[in-house]
Amino acid sequence: HLNFKHTEFFYVPATILLFAEIDRICSLAEIIKPVSIIDPIKRRPREVLKQIGLHQLTKDTCDIVPEREDVVYWKATKGATQTGDTYATLVEAVAERANRDHVKHLEVSGLWRSVSEAVANSVEHAYKYPRKDGFGGVPDTKWWMFSQIKDGYFSLAVCDLGCGYQKTIDETLPERFVALVASQFIGTNRDALAIDTAMEFGRSGTHQSHRGKGSRDALSLLAKHGTGELAVISNTGWMRYEYQNTKETKREAGSLSSSMGGTILWWRLPLIED
Predict the structure, then answer these.
(1) 229 vs 13: CA distance, rounded Å
(2) How far apart are CA 248 and CA 221, in angstroms?
(3) What is the DSSP string of 1-57?
(4) Which pLDDT score, from 0 to 100, does residue 106 have?
(5) Which residues have a Cβ under 8 Å from the Cβ of 109 and sit 6 or more positions away?
(6) Positive or negative, the Cα torsion across 176, 233, 185, 112?
(7) Alpha carbon distance 199, 234 (integer Å)
(8) pLDDT of 245 above 70
(9) 11, 154 Cβ separation under 8 angstroms
């Protein structure tokens, strides 16, 4: 049983990880209903659980109809391929509603390359090795995605439950690049170092001409949008990048007290004035 009785707030990267792990458990369980939800007392968090489809995963019932402005823009999807059909529909739906309901709008053209590369990395690299608890992936789901509009910002998060950046970085980058970033790195966490190395020198692990520059495409979205932030969490480490007027203004690194068991990329972009 998951008791959300006193839950008041859902934080995007934590919620997508929760959503992904519950989906993993329900998909692989040998019993019919491995997880049950006790709904929040307050209406707003109860609307969030209904809006993102958590009750559908656990086969619980909830008759509430989401209607709050800070809830109805939450959208969730998942997939096992990198074709783009699923997440393109999600982002376009959020953008269409934002453009209809707000005096500011969401420009989605710059999203496609960055989101596509993040999804491709999850499909092609995240499950090459099992993560530390032995989990090697769900056959029909490789990634999970959330999008949200709140307080004038568009958020999009992509999550996988794979082995993390540190396991795969050596396959896509020469050792000299890793050493160069390590000599200038602002933190001590090895997972965070692997993230920062990929963001500095990342390239597509497939080496295919039609693909982008790998993880660096995640940062290119901030430069193109002009202002925004990107947080990347992988196992025990995290990096956060902030841009203003197309230039990087802040870079932070840190550690988690325990491994999250996967990778999350979370963009947060201000809506643009019409």
Answers:
(1) 14
(2) 12
(3) -EE-TT-----HHHHHHHHHHHHHHHHH-SSS----EE--SSHHHHHHHHHHTHHHH
(4) 58
(5) none
(6) positive
(7) 13
(8) yes
(9) no
Q: Which amino acid does the sequence have at 110? A: G
CB–CB of 255/192 below 8 Å? yes
Residue 47 has pLDDT above 50, yes or no: yes
Angle of CA points 179, 185, 187, to nearest 5°:
130
Top pLDDT among 204 and 98 is at 98
For 157-208, the pLDDT digits (tens) are: 999 999 999 988 877 777 777 888 888 888 889 999 999 998 888 654 444 4
Of 213, 183, 171, 191, the C-alpha closest to 261 is 191
- How far is 105 from 155, CA to CA, in rounded Å? 13
pLDDT of residue 92: 67
Average pLDDT over residues 9-20: 93
Residue appearing with tokens 């007027």: 245
**Where would I find the H helices in 40-189?**
43-52, 54-58, 85-101, 111-124, 165-172, 175-184
For 127, residues 6+ apart whose C-beta sits below 8 A from its C-beta are 136, 137, 142, 160, 162, 163
Predicted TM-score of the model (pTM): 0.87
Q: What CA–CA distance (Å, rounded) separates 145 from 91?
A: 10
Alpha-carbon radius of gyration of the chain: 18
Average pLDDT of the residues in 205-228: 68
b/e per residue 116-140 (b: at least 16 CB within 10 A): bbbbbbbbbbbbeeebeeebebbee
- Label residues 216-251 b or e (16+ Cβ within 10 Å = b): bbbbebbebbeebbbbbbbbbbbbbbbbeeeeeeee
The amino acid sitting at 227 is T
Residue 122: phi and psi, rounded to 5, are: -65, -45
Cβ-Cβ contacts under 8 Å for 122 (sequence gap 6 or more): 142, 143, 158, 160, 162, 263
